[in-house]
């Protein structure tokens, strides 16, 4: 008795439950996934709020991300410094937003940030080119990519300024019935 190791305080676990879409059990499972990425770096006791970041190279190699053409952008968007290195909070946020329980508008907001490669709060033709090239894994010619991007802008650019605002993007997502099923990671 008394040998049970405490990973989090009760308050920490409750806070994680309050700011994610996860149960305590799921939070613990994700903690151990995080800890398994860098056991020499991530302590088993988080009650003292250690300042730990798992490097992008390890985050990007996770089975859930390694084949995703947007893995680097996903890690950059969810990391607090934009470098892809993640704290436990960043890691939990990423999995929470990508979970089946996250609402469509939250997923759309983060998808927008992921596709906004130049971080200017809009999706321009260049951002679309990056997105289409990754989605098609480079199998389209530059001319075909340009044509697809032009069609997307024609269809979704509500104010015709040559770029997609968050509102334009959200309206486009509303017309994509498979968005919720494709923008998620199973834990």
From TrEMBL:
Species this chain originates from: Trichechus manatus latirostris (Florida manatee)
Lineage: Eukaryota, Metazoa, Chordata, Craniata, Vertebrata
Molecular functions per Gene Ontology: calcium ion binding; magnesium ion binding
Domain called EF-hand: residue spans: 144-179
Source domain of life: Eukaryota
Pfam family for this entry, one: EF-hand_7
Record keywords, A-Z: Calcium, Integrin, Magnesium, Metal-binding, Repeat
GO BP terms in the entry: calcium ion homeostasis; integrin-mediated signaling pathway
Protein name: Calcium and integrin-binding family member 3 isoform X1
Record keyword Nucleus present: no
Gene giving rise to this polypeptide: CIB3
């Amino acid at each position: 008795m008394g040998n049970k190791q405490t990973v989090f305080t009760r308050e920490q676990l409750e806070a994680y439950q309050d700011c994610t879409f996860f149960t305590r059990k799921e939070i613990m499972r994700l903690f151990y996934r995080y800890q398994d990425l860098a056991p020499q770096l991530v302590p088993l006791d988080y009650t003292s709020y250690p300042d730990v970041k798992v490097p992008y190279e390890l985050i990007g190699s996770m089975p859930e991300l390694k084949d995703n053409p947007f893995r680097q952008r996903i890690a950059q968007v969810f990391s607090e410094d934009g470098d892809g290195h993640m704290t436990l909070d960043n890691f939990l946020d990423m999995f929470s937003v990508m979970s089946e329980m996250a609402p469509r508008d939250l997923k759309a907001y983060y998808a927008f940030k992921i596709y906004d490669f130049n971080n200017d709060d809009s999706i321009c033709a260049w951002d679309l080119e990056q997105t289409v090239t990754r989605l098609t894994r480079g199998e389209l010619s530059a001319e075909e990519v340009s044509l697809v991007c032009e069609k997307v802008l024609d269809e979704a650019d509500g104010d015709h300024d040559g770029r997609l605002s968050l509102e334009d993007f959200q309206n486009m997502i509303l017309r994509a019935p498979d968005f919720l099923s494709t923008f998620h990671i199973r834990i």
